[in-house]
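HOLO CASE FILE
Compound: magnesium ion
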Amino acid sequence: MTQETILEALKKVFYFPKRDNVVALNMIRNIKVDGDEISLTLLFPEKDEKNENIVRDTCINTLKELAGKDAKITIDVGVPVDSLAKVKYVIAVASGKGGVGKSTVSVNLAVALSQLGAKTGIIDADIYGPSVPMMFDLIEAKPEVREKDGKTIIIPVEKYGIKVLSIGFFVDQSQALIWRGPMASNALSQLFNDAEWGELDYLVVDLPPGTGDIQLTLAQQIAVSGIVIVSTPQEVALADARKAFSMFNQENIRIPILGLVENMSYFTPAELPDNKYYIFGKEGGKKLAEQSNVPFLGQIPLVQSVCEAGDRGVPSTLEENSIISRAFLELAKNIKNEVSKIKQPE
Ligand SMILES: Nc1ncnc2c1ncn2[C@@H]1O[C@H](COP(=O)(O)OP(=O)(O)OP(=O)(O)O)[C@@H](O)[C@H]1O
Ligand SMILES: [Mg+2]
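Model generated. Tokens follow.
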């Protein structure tokens, strides 16, 4: 028995008020297995005295089918604390194609927002290839985990004035690769819901590339204020950016798209900062934004120091008045502006 087989079995348990199974609804937490003893927490979206016992008993019976009738099964029932209650805006950074610079944009955007005076956090939701630990020089970081009223609470790590959590802090990469949908979604949901985020103006989320489970979990379970799509000016990347637009626009998802950022817009050599070489084509991103009727949020040049800074763990936006910090401050201002149009903070 593993966490995975347990989650697989519990997919049979339905929670009628929300018309889906308890795994899809991410109601299962803290699974522990020790021989034939299984314990877990069942989190209800809200207090539900009418159904609590029925759902809990169904879970117990389902697990007994899996583990044998003598198995000792303990299920605690709870309701989630709203960890995001004091977070004004959740901004997810997505792309259709991989490697276009989502993580670079997420990290530098978080730094730029913080430089504009906003309280900022970042979640690295890239289960299969987390890069935020490296980009923030936090490879060795281990966030503190506390137990409070029977619930696990994760304390984000603070770096450069930003609260940081990455799935990479918790899992060995060779294991993450074999995670299937529900495991990955469950882990992601913990980074949002079981962490002590406190008061934040912006929580930036670095997504994995594409349009898979992670993006769906996010859409279904977390109140994302808006999506920023990153693309390079190349046709292949733009074609995938279009797919990302339509994914987030689908009837059942519908997260507002804040706009498109064009990364690696032109190459600027360090010794010739005024020269721009449009090696991937000129303004493809800007044109796509116009055609798709979404705001164009800005251009980020291709600069060697960005790549080096990423590897050193010191985001280049921290380097004041550089080409890159100017580009990201501009981007951050545009995003703030777009965000303020979609939802007024209470
Ligand atoms: N504007 C830029 N100038 C120079 N290098 C860049 C720039 N943007 C990104 N890079 C480099 O390109 C590589 C890919 O960037 P990054 O990891 O941010 O992409 P990603 O979209 O997050 O990738 P993945 O899809 O794998 O998550 C990194 O080595 C990064 O340093
Ligand atoms: Mg990435």
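CASE NOTES: The longest strand covers residues 257-267. The two ends are 46 Å apart (CA to CA).
CLOSED: yes
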